[in-house]
Amino acid sequence: MNLISAFADLTMTTEIFESVDPLHLESGEVIKQFQIAYTTYGQLNSDRSNVIWVVHALTGDSKAAEWWNGLIGEDKFFDPANHFIICANLLGSNYGSTNPLSINPESGKPYYYDFPQLTPRDLALSLERLRNYLQLDQIHTLIGGSLGGQVALEWSVTLGQRLKNAVILASTAKSSPWVIGFNETQRMAIESDCTWGEKREDAGLKGLETARAIAMLSYRHPADLRIKQSENDEKLDGFKASSYLRYQGQKLAKRFNALSYWALSKAMDSHDLGRNRGGVEASLAQIEARVLTVGVNSDLLFLPEESQFISQKVRRGTYKEIQSTAGHDAFLIEFEQLTYILKSFYLEN
Ligand SMILES: CC(=O)SCCNC(=O)CCNC(=O)[C@H](O)C(C)(C)COP(=O)(O)OP(=O)(O)OC[C@H]1O[C@@H](n2cnc3c(N)ncnc32)[C@H](O)[C@@H]1OP(=O)(O)O
Ligand SMILES: N[C@@H](CCO)C(=O)O
Questions:
Q1: Suppose 307 and one of 57, 148, 245, 295 were both cysteines; which one would form an S-S bond, judging by CB atoms 3.0 to 4.6 Å apart?
Q2: CA 74, CA 51: separation in Å to the nearest integer?
Q3: CATH of 12-175+276-348 given 3.40.605.10, 3.30.390.50, 3.40.50.1820, 3.20.20.70
């Protein structure tokens, strides 16, 4: 499938990669076959050394130049005129890749609740399949934030010398009890929806709205809500903060499904770079690429210390920080600072 982008001079192609080889998951389960939707921008150069691989966060999709439009595009830091930019929709997500609503080849029916447990390592393995298929022997920069950062970190361990630079934003080497706790409250919200458990595409959708509203409180900082959602009137009810969270919940429920959300939030919980590798520090020390970690000073979910820790334990690490009142999601918002941070990283290295 070739799609012409809405961006005038940005050639975008979205395609489907079908893997017919079984994917052996960390849980011991096997996905016999799967598909991955991926989008590319720009062209490979003659020595195929200009690959920028983007990994999206929890509810993102493969169209990175849309949700990261301040970083990817004409005259942006990652410009398709110079780079071959690729982003794949993560396995488990519902933007074209195999997910719980896809047909299980074993039963001929959607997986629904039988979808296997995924980990960031499994997700990295599925991306490795795609890399092999596309014969991309070198990745110049692998970049991802939050869950995308977890997957990028996992992949950095196994890519070895095939990867030159890893940029890990607002993420961690191992999910903290705090992150797992937040995700659990969101799954509890989904479970409390009376349609959860039914085999239908919209199962748990009302619960997903609540889950997103809870999640938003971890993606923002109190200062952000104080700036944007404070009241001018003296009132008893009908607060802006309330309608904001309800709106955010409804917005996600219109574009996502609760089963994918469940699968990917479970994957996020399971993230432990050191599992079966002798611990987190040992696995970070295995990464051969240069690593830039970027924390956000107001991130309440993935704390800046967690990003600092990664840069201290890898062989060649750099830490930079975004200053923002936006909270965790600043890595999707603060393009000017991100551009400056990336420019200095490449100049210094
Ligand atoms: C098809 C797809 O969309 S695929 C993938 C796109 N998404 C991703 O990649 C995931 C990553 N992206 C994100 O998480 C988000 O888009 C972010 C973090 C980048 C930005 O989040 P936003 O929701 O745009 O920002 P913010 O928190 O400021 O909220 C603004 C929205 O809330 C609405 N809003 C603000 N205050 C209120 C209020 N008091 N009451 C009701 N609504 C309100 C605004 O009108 C705006 O609505 P809009 O999104 O319809 O324009
Ligand atoms: N706001 C992000 C999740 C936080 O990393 C998303 O919806 O994907």
A1: 295
A2: 16
A3: 3.40.50.1820
